[in-house]
Amino acid sequence: MSALAGRRVVVSAGPTFEDIDPVRFLGNRSSGKMGFAIAAAATGLGAQVTLVAGPVALPTPAGVARIDVRSAAQMHDAVMATLPCDVYIGAAAVADYTPATIAPDKLKKQPGQGGLTLELVRTRDILADVAAHPRRPRLVVGFAAETRDVEAYARAKLAAKKLDLIAANRVGVDGSGFESDDNTLVVFDADGATTLGPASKADVATQLVDLIAARLP
Ligand code: CTP
């Protein structure tokens, strides 16, 4: 029998875009490839997969139910609406801050204005909210992309957000590692660490999903 047969898995993927006005937004370099590969790998193991995707132009993996969203707030609502599930994998690069207001009209330069200050407010933490939910999934898996001190920062997130696993990868100070087709992940739990890759994102995703499946009762 497939290792994830009968399991409901929810994966978030891609960036979020936080609108400033009708033509501008704050975004990030996430390509969505890792999250889409995880959704495909979980489907391959027999899971019923819902993929909550930020704005990316990737094809939907076969057999996956996809929900497209744009902002962190929309992603929060969409993910919460999928609960309960057995496994939540937060692979999306969710914006930590969003503009306090969205200007209804395009912002115009003002004569003599040498700069522009945007007021940003914190977004809600989807991963932490899933982990603290009354109908918490059996396994909650986070991601951490770090430019330095990977293990210390990843372990801090594992504890602070009350996760079961966190998959960390090092990204270059120039942002490299985001658009790539290959990846290396170090997966931390409370006790130890497992390195997956370097390999294609598809292979790393398969290894990660195998590791998750082995932890389900
Ligand atoms: N995450 C989330 N909701 C947010 C922010 C992040 O669900 N509003 C999730 C991401 O999907 C990912 C993990 O949290 O699984 C990333 O942790 P985070 O602390 O946000 O990392 P960074 O944005 O890199 O933050 P920091 O500046 O603290 O390193």
CATH-level-4 superfamily name: CoaB-like
What's the number of domains?
Answer: 1
- Return the string of H and E elements: EEEHEEHEEEHEHEEEH
Question: How many strands, which pairing sense, and closed or not: the largest β-sheet?
Answer: 8 strands, mixed
C-alpha Rg (nearest Å): 18 Å
Quick one: how many beta strands? 12
* Order of neighbouring strands in the sheet with most strands: 5-4-1-6-9-10-11-12
Plain-language structure description:
The chain is α/β, with parallel strands linked by helices. The protein has helices at about 35-45, 70-80, 125-130, 150-160, 200-215; strands at about 10-15, 20, 25, 50-55, 65-70, 85-90, 95-100, 120, 140-145, 165-170, 180-190, 195-200. The radius of gyration is 18 Å and the shape is globular. Bound molecules: cytidine-5'-triphosphate (CTP). Cytidine-5'-triphosphate (CTP) binds near residues 72, 90, 96 and 157.
Layout of secondary structure:
Blueprint: E1 8-13, E2 18-21, E3 24-26, H1 33-44, E4 48-53, E5 65-68, H2 72-82, E6 87-90, E7 97-99, E8 120-122, H3 126-131, E9 139-146, H4 150-160, E10 165-170, E11 182-188, E12 193-200, H5 201-214
Parallel strand pairs: 1-4, 1-6, 4-5, 6-9, 9-10
Antiparallel strand pairs: 2-3, 7-8, 10-11, 11-12
This protein binds cytidine-5'-triphosphate (CTP).
Cytidine-5'-triphosphate binds next to helix 3 and strand 9.
Compose a concise summary of this entry.
The protein has 217 residues and is of the alpha/beta class. It has one domain (8-96, 118-215): 3-Layer(aba) Sandwich (Rossmann fold).
